[in-house]
Design a protein that fits this description.
Organism: Pedobacter polaris
Order of helices and strands: HHEEEEHEEH
Strand order of the largest sheet: 1-2-3
Helix content: 40-55%
Number of helices: 4
InterPro entries: YdbS-like_PH
Protein name: PH domain-containing protein
Keywords: Membrane, Transmembrane, Transmembrane helix
Number of domains: 1
CATH architecture: Roll
Radius of gyration: 23 Å
Length: 177
């Protein structure tokens, strides 16, 4: 029987995930974000314009509405741009790190042994730029899943294969014990 210990851990000697150099998304991914945002804003703008012309009540000055819409659009693009610059990921020996967010910065660290499934997603816009989204699903439910967008397809395939190989290795080690 193993002797029970419960020693205090010196927090200063723990490895610091903040020191890990993260890989940023491919700069071409910004084009994908711009295209997707533009499509959404055009659809919303078209819907608002249709609604504006269908309403028979007293209408506000359309220049004010247009100025508000353009200001909202500029704010949306600025927030997405700043958020884009904060994204990053790193594949380490025992885990994968993903950091994102502008106002609420989130850093997710998933141990390799918690990964259940790895998928590669290429959206229509991303595919035209040779980019993909790496989806990593864990046993911990929705909160543990991460989607790392803006990775070159070939690099995403390499990461996926590396994760799958590590999962197979861990599964084989567990089966032997």
């Amino acid at each position: 029987m193993q002797e029970f210990t419960n020693e205090t851990i010196d927090l200063e000697n723990l490895p610091k995930y903040q020191d890990v150099v993260l890989t940023a998304p491919n700069p071409k991914y910004w084009n994908v974000i711009v295209i997707n945002l533009s499509i959404i804003l055009l659809l919303v703008g078209g819907g608002l314009a249709t609604l504006f012309y269908l309403v028979d009540d007293e209408k506000p000055n359309p220049l004010y509405l247009l100025a508000g819409y353009l200001l909202f659009s500029a704010l949306l693009f600025t927030i997405h741009r700043l958020s884009f610059k904060k994204r990053g990921y790193a594949l380490r020996e025992k885990d994968i790190i993903y950091k994102h967010g502008l106002i609420a910065e989130t850093t997710t660290i998933i141990p390799i042994h918690r990964i259940q499934h790895v998928a590669l997603d290429e959206g229509i816009t991303s595919r035209s730029y040779g980019l993909a989204t790496l989806q990593i699903f864990t046993a911990g439910g929705q909160t543990g899943h991460i989607h790392i967008a803006g990775i070159e397809v070939e690099k995403a395939k390499i990461i996926k294969e590396a994760l799958v190989k590590r999962l197979d290795l861990l599964e084989n080690l567990t089966a032997e014990q």
